[in-house]
Amino acid sequence: MSSMVFRGLEGSNPLGFLAAVGALRLLDLIWPDREVRLRWIRDDGWRPEISGLAVDDEVELCSLLSESAPWAPLDAFAELGDDVTVERPLFERVVRQVAGTAIARDRRAADFAAAFGSDVCEDKDKNKNRIQYTDLCFITGSGHQCFLKTARDLAQKVGPEHLREALFGPWRRADRSLSLRWDPDDAKEYALQWRDPGPEGVLSVWGANRLAFEALPLFPTVPTGKWLRTSGFRTQNRTRELTWPLWTRPATIDSVRSLLSLRELGQETPNRGELQAMGIEEIFRVQRVRIPPNGANFKVSFRPARAV
Fold it and tell me: Is the dihedral of CA 272, 273, 275, 281 positive or negative?
């Protein structure tokens, strides 16, 4: 079995972390009998190391991911349109449809549905009984950017060369548009830039965004009373924050799913002794913010992460 260090991904960047976990999930689906594992090592930052691979060449790995990986079954959600901000009856109907595929032993669509939102919790905004949706949905139509449409466009455009840049670097951030806005680099306010970024549009790393989308099933949504909660998020001073751990012992996808949902991660000051006993050496936290904070014309982004 081979191992690779994905030096293009940095664990302190939420997009880099999500892309690493998304890559682990895909590789586990490709080789379910090999116990593919992920750990984080210090290598000019925190870098993900994947072990249990059946290939040892980065070009071959990226070609395999591009051509053979069981990517998100986006066709199963065609009825939702371009976004997950839909009315409850429509989402309920789609959920019932994908539940049938789960019974047929392919639960991928059902896992994504649970990550997108819930038909139990309504967001009664402007008299439209929309569902409450995941905290990881940052684009809902503003500037003609939509969550599911961006995922579909990435699926059409991303090839092996984009995945290679994402996984092995360096990130050039030369891909125009198609950003899920999970990279804190997207959160630059106009006043802090030397020119108007509007005409140019956002520049992103397509491969990292597509891989990060594959991490969504590891961040399911759960109804809690009247509100929908997304795994890994907490509210602090009316601001939603995402917290994630970095572990140094190789972990399978099931172990990673458990690590991401640890209750201790939501504490203001997590118990490092307890977490280190699980192999967790670092914890990062990032704010989910609106820029600007007021008005109808805003963008949602992550701030740069901080070590907890």
Answer: positive
Alpha-carbon span 155 to 73, nearest angstrom: 10
Question: Which of 58-67, 138-147, 223-232 is the most confident on average?
Answer: 58-67
Evaluate whether 306 touches 286 at the Cβ level (below 8 Å). Answer: yes
Closest to 232 measured CA to CA, from 216, 209, 253: 216
Residues 288/304, Cβ–Cβ less than 8 Å:
no
> pLDDT digit string (tens) for 113-125?
999 999 999 887 7
Please give the full DSSP string across the chain, using - where no structure is assigned.
-EEEE-TT--TTSHHHHHHHHHHHHHHHHH-TTS--EEEEEESSSEEEEEEEES---HHHHHHHHHHHS----GGGGGGGTT-S--BHHHHHHHHHHHHHHHHTT--HHHHHHHHHEEEEEEEEETTEEEEEE-TT---BSGGG-BHHHHHHHHHHH--HHHHHHHHHS-----EES---S-SGGGG--GGGSSS--TTT--EE-HHHHHHHHTTGGGS-EEEETTEEEETTEEEETTEEEEEEEEESS-B-HHHHHHHHT-GGGGSSS--HHHHHHTTEEEEEEEEEEEESSSSSS-EEEEPPPEE-
User: Could you tell me which of 57, 6, 3 has the C-alpha nearest to residue 205?
Assistant: 6
Q: What is the pTM of this model?
A: 0.94
